[in-house]
Amino acid sequence: MIRMLQSHYILIFSLILSLPMIYFFAPHFLSPHPRQLPIPRPDELEDLSLFNRAISSTFSSPSSSSTFSFSRLGTHNPTLKIAFLFLTHTDLFFSPLWDRFFNSSSPKLFNIYIHADPDAHLKDPGGFFNARFIPSKHTERSSATLISAAKRLMASAILDDPLNFYFALVSQSCIPLHSFDYVYKTLLGRSKGNGFGFRHVRHKSFIEILDNETILPSRYIARGKNVMLPEVPFDQFRVGSQFFVLTKKHALMVLKDRKLWRKFRLPCFKTESCYPEEHYFPTLLSMKDPNGCTQYTLTRVNWTDSVNGHPHMYLPPEVSPELIYTLRQSNYTHDYLFARKFSPDCLNPLMDMADTVIFND
Fold first, then answer.
1. CB atoms within 10 A of CB 24
2. Which of 3, 25, 234, 297 could form a disulfide with 208 if both were Cys (CB 3.0 to 4.6 A apart)?
3. For helices 248-256 and 41-57, what crossing angle results, to 10°?
4. What is its main location (predicted)?
């Protein structure tokens, strides 16, 4: 009997002693594993080399004013360009419409770069105005791979042509809402008597930056509680559209960043609340240069009936001149220049009114 009582007390005493160990070590064993794989180290190093080359090659410093350095280009009136950055994991279904869009411009005031997921096996979109397919890596929804892909596009565009001044990120489901000339004039202005030219004004980036959305708390802790600290306090965490138009100054800021990237590249435990590409760029630019951004995007998206994080997808019966006119309308200073999301079979009705409606502005 005495031995049984001794054994009983020993068991109770052992359990009491083990409670602190369970408290401290259980989270390491019981916490869920991230549902995403981290970005491979070789990919990180290869990207870092690309970004450093782009930063070193540029004639404009991210810390300088947003006006372009003409003297270093050897001319007082360079013809600045817009770099269109297509981030896609499917075929470029709307390449004929974009071809018509670029064809509406007589001088070569643009460049086109495509990051195509290597696992997608895309069809070559044909001529597509000599678009450049950049070396690409795997991308995954709700992961930092989409941030890396966007940065790869910007770095490749900077290395390719020093006259690329604006960097417009679009997707395979995006369409233009205006002619190229209208887009160029909106972004870079028109100098009378000189055709298109750059005027010495402060150009801003068009990127949505929101700070009072109900989704922010759940998005902030998607990687775990307090994981974003100290680099990203909650009161500086922002959300915005994945698609934007950045100046060269801000593109270089993005490529130079290492501090915030260390946090945003981490895999999420809650993938349903993890959309790093919607937070990294708005948060970084809001912290670095909020006055240099308009705080709104030029790409129209319809979120009224979104499903699983996807916006409304327009179908052929919805495509009409009235839809184009409606999508252009904005409450901000500028009209919307692009729109998404359109199903691939919208191509024919869009082409039917390309010249009479979309590019007739």
1. 9
2. 297
3. 140
4. membrane
d(CA 265, CA 57): 26
Q: For 41-61+73-212+242-266+290-358, CATH number?
A: 3.90.550
Report d(CA 101, CA 111) in Å as an integer.
Answer: 13
Q: Amino acid identity, residue 216? A: L
Q: Name the nearest CA neighbour of 293 among 333, 341, 335.
A: 333
- Note if the bond before 151 is cis, omega within 30 degrees: no
What is residue 35's predicted lDDT score, i.e. its pLDDT?
60
Q: Phi and psi of 99, rounded to 5°?
A: -60, -45
How far is residue 62 from each of residues 12, 68, 117, 179, 289, measured CA to CA in Å? 65, 11, 29, 30, 11
Secondary structure (DSSP) of 183-222: HHHHHH-B-TTSSB---SS---EEEE-BS--TTHHHHHTT
pLDDT along the chain (361 residues), means of 10: 52 50 40 66 97 86 44 57 96 95 83 92 78 93 94 98 97 96 89 39 89 96 96 98 96 98 94 93 98 97 80 96 98 96 97 97 88
Q: What is the DSSP letter of 328?
A: H
pTM: 0.85
CA 242, 244, 249, 252 torsion-angle sign: positive
40, 30, 78, 60: which is closest to 246 by C-alpha? 60
Tokens 């410093």 belong to: 61
Crossing angle for the helix pair 145-160 and 280-288, to the nearest 10 degrees: 60
Beta bridge partners of residue 133, listed in sequence order: 114
Show the CA angle centred on residue 321, arms to residues 318 and 326, nearest 5°: 80
115: left (phi over 0), alpha (psi -120 to 50) or beta: beta
Return the pLDDT at 271: 83
